[in-house]
Amino acid sequence: MWLKLASFILRNRVVILVILGIATAFMGYQATKVKMVYKFGGLLPETDSTYIIYEDFIEKFSEDGNVLVLGVNDPQLLEVENFQSWYDLGQNIKGVTVPKDTMINDEMVTLSKNVVDSVFSVAHCYTIVKNEEEKRFRFQKIQKGRPTSQAEVDSVITQVYSLPFYDGLLYKDSSDATLMMVFVNAGLFNSQDRGQGVEQITDIVDEFTADSGIECHISGLPFIRTEMTNKVKDELRFFILLAAAMTGLLLFFFFRNIGVVAVCLLVVGIGVVWSMGTIGMLGYRISMLMGLIPPLMIVIGVPNCVYLMNKYHGEYKKHGNKAKALTRVVQKIGNATFMTNMTTAMGFATFMFTHSDIMRHFGVVAAINIIAIFVISIVTIPIVTSFMPAPRRKHVKHLDRKWLYFMVNKFVKIVQDYRRPVYIGVALVMLASIYGMTRVKTTGNIVGDFPVNDRVIHDLTWFEDNFNGVMPFEMVVDCKRPGQIMKPNNLQKLEKLQRKLEAHPEFSRSLSIVDATKFARQAFYNGSESRYGLIKRNEQSFIGPYFQSDYNTGGMESTFLDSARSITRISAQIADIGTEEMEALLANLRVEVEEIFPPDKYEVTMTGTSIVFLEGTEYMVKNLIISLAIAIFVICVIMSVLFRSVRMVLISLLPNLIPLLFTAAVMGYFGIPLKPSTILVFSIAFGISVDDTIHFLAKYRQELKVLRWNIKESVLLAVKETGVSMMYTSIVLFFGFGIFGASEFGGVRALGILVSLTLMVAMFANLVVLPSLLLSFEKSITTKAFSEPFLEIIDEEEDIELHELQVKKNT
Question: N or C: which terminal CB in the chain sees fewer CB atoms within 10 Å?
Fold first, then answer.
């Protein structure tokens, strides 16, 4: 089959190049449709109860995390000039607009859309006043315009500080810290336009800091999401260029031939275009995880190029016939390259078995494009090379890799003479790894992947120090009967629950219908601060009429109540604590909730972005462990079919599990948490490292035939002949994945370093542990069935000269 394919490719090279060019142009067009992810989410399936509760909450009460917060902690803010700047800052932010395409009379028109719905600060807040004639409350601005004097500023501050409703919300009575809350338009919240608007707001804030000399901190989900999206976009471009540069340098180091480097970069360049086109064609979006796909295609595609170019040069060096060499490239190692790409694709494809949209999309695109990069390389390299001049003597000098041969001979010596120390070393590593695994923690933070010196972390820390947190946390209380939530006993229960929240330092000041009621009561008594409290029973007759409709309370009730007044919310912000701490906190809180609201009469649920992220992280970790188990099982089945020996497959699993255990131990010892970004290490590394095992066992089986069942010599020759290519590709993959160590995201950085480490350990395990086991258990492992392949993987010797390698005999 592969001989026919080689002949077909070379006979129709012009037509195939044209088709490849058209396909690449088409995929390039599809790539222009790719959009970024502008929201957190996708970790939980739509059928998950946490997701359903959150969506139900949004439907009733709108988006929970559309508040962008600004904060300062400087007494100079209350000086008239600075207070004027603070007022101007709010006005300028309210004026921020973005272009928005709108269909009017069947014609697309670009209009300006306000990014911000409202702004609240000590310079932009309201009080409630009563209208005795109409028996209604109405909102009234405290500061009606830009202040003109210090006396006016002092008056405003005095009035604001007399309203306990704003204590802990806009200012901290115990410090000079104050906030400005910016409510981003809900319609733009999860769109690209939101990102543009937040960037404009950030520029305005920075201008305020520069002009006034007062440092202004900024945080909230709109800002955090925008910063993450911008970093993902920047890293996507950066890592594509870095991966191309790194692989180009490695290829030049190995081949010392600009032409070879150009051909290989052409292959991976097409692979990058196809990967981006696949994302666009399937309607997926670029997330932090999906942004890894294009550089991954470079890293995974280069070993294909190395195998194919090595074979071409090796064949040409033997007989000097260019056409014959190109034909044998496809014929002799096409199947082996296909099988290794297939197992790598299977490792990624297991992510499709998760119910997380993000992971499923990642698995689909990765698996498709790993197979695609094989097709591109097996077609492009022979065709393009056929148009290039034949290799000269200097172009094949790279085949004389004496340092690699020296290393391989060392491996042969170890396998032949030092198996006992190998087993002792493996046992010690396994014991240390098992202990290290017990120290691995499963945790995650919404901003956990940002670098510690990033502005996001710096400003978020300020808000957590001064106001406890900014991450949305919501509690929904359902009384199960219409109109019950406003009963005095239920309002008292809500107040008691809010006090419980205040006792936990992780929560900021909470808000509920209780606070709105207290604010209104204070207004009824003409702003008397001492009257800030719940309405007493003897007051209901004359204050009650002011609460007969939502209109009368200025829209406050719709913020906290459903239309039937049976469901209410308690809104708070929480510090960005890890998932372990969050679980413990929620467990304590559930006990406190049930004491106040008996489950047989009330239904209390906790939701919000913080809860969704917590549940999503735990869900991801569990599903990825399952996907890893599926990957191991599927690849074992494939190997069983290929090698027709269950015992051989089982014994070959050990060299591939050792690196996974070793990496898990490294995570435990160095405090690298298990989270969605880092657990990917295991599935990715296993799918790639098992390629070396397949190559080794295929070559070992071939040598058994040639050497008439001389197991020892077959093992040693397999080490020699596959060792060079394993080291070659392992070096490429080590540096290829190592580039992700330059990422600004902690998870991506850990992913790159850990995968590089895992693959390097896997190389040593496959070149030392696996052959040692084959020699030690030669009679019980190597059966006659193993020598009869279901599918021929390697048809001929590898592209190295055997006379370069010497097996030293014991003397």
Answer: C
